Amino acid sequence: MVIAPYMSGFQTLSDPIPELVLEVQGNLPLWLSGTLLRTGPAKFDLGKQTVNHWFDGLSLLQRFSFHNGRITYAADFLRSEAYNKAAQEKRLRSNEFGTNPPLSLLERLMAVLTLPKTDNGNVNIARLNDHYLSLTETPFPVEFNPQTLSTVSAFTFADNLKGQITTAHPQYDLVDGSAYNLLTNVSTTSHYQFYHLRPGSQKRHLIASLPVAQPGYIHSFALTQSYIVLFEFPLLLNPLELLFSGKPYIENYHWHKNKTTRIFVIDKTNGTLVFSSQSDPCFAFHHANAYEENGSIVVDLIAYEDPAIIQAFYLNKVGSANIPQARLRRYTISPTNKKIVWQFKTDSSLEMPALNSACYAGRKYRYLYGAAPHFQGDFFSSLIKLDLQNENELSWSEKDIYTGEPTFIQAPNTSIADTLNNEIEDQGVILTLCLDTKKSKSVLIMIDAQSMQEIGRAYLPVTIPFALHGQFFPHQ
Ligand SMILES: [Fe+2]
Questions:
Q1: Which domains does the chain have, with CATH numbers?
Q2: Which of 92, 159, 286, 361 has the greatest CB tally within 10 Å of its CB?
Q3: Which of 108-117, 133-142, 249-258, 362-371 has the lowest mean pLDDT?
């Protein structure tokens, strides 16, 4: 079997990388000042056990700091409880996404009493007040120091909200700065619970609690200025199976191809279920954006026909160049007419959606960026920019380079109001950490967001495994 060249991006990184100054080729804008923090799976081989799935790898934190045309870089493992125990025993001691620890019969019987409780924050980064957190899909964030990348401690919320499963994609209200997220409580009577956190607070306020017999696998949700929108794809969990099957977390979810996608629209101020309906079955990890227009709610999803993408990311399959394609679907939900319609917004495949979220999250927007395959079935090997108004697209790619999540950074000295008034939504740069398989090194590529032309790049000394998500924090 031919091994895809990008497989070096799915191999274990053994050691942290102490801070170093990167050599910049090209022209880095002098206004670019801030820190890009990223997390992703990076340790797959634990010594006595190798994990099964990309999403099981132990988290590596990465930091790119930009100041006066200079870039410094460092990477270190998140010393979560999952990491520390795995490092000690050279095998997992926590239930991960697609791999469980090898357990004796007695250990298995005891494990039945507890739900998966990993704190391996390998999915996304969030800043909550002054706390920098590494997130996964359990409600156990781990705080780290954004300067040194050293792990601080487990982060605890100041409330008693109960639940076992969350998303690593909290959504933010640009007007009041509140964060919103979903916390699913799995039991004999399970509930989808939406909460918000006000700026300065660590106390989650429950907004809405929707009973559900078989919770869906929910990786993200949508937030507009007035509403929370939940898409429940028919990849459903039997709660008892999660408790008693002994199978890895994701294997307890089952695809019901004859069921529908259920859609719930919740008033985010008072938690009222404003509207619920159904649409065709599909699957998505990511919502691109959502907004309100003329009494309707528009939701953009990066949708697959089914959840085969989860299977494709098992480490023994990801190199087969047979990765399912996702396309941008635009749903228009009209609560007054009790109608939902959807259409494809592009023929191209894309994932890891990004936009000018500092100004346009929850608002009508025009430009969407994403990582895309260069040919059908390939891993991400280009970056695309969709103009959703004129329905055309631009792209960037280079032979032997595989891409990652793009991050859009707004050019400075522009307030949200100025940006919205002057329609300068795409004035800024795109940062994306790529893998150059010819040089066997990871490389940060910097792209002008308007033209999608490269403006500069900076090579790392080694190959860093493909990360998942990150966030940019401007220097203040
Ligand atoms: Fe994600």
A1: 5-474 (2.130.10)
A2: 92
A3: 108-117
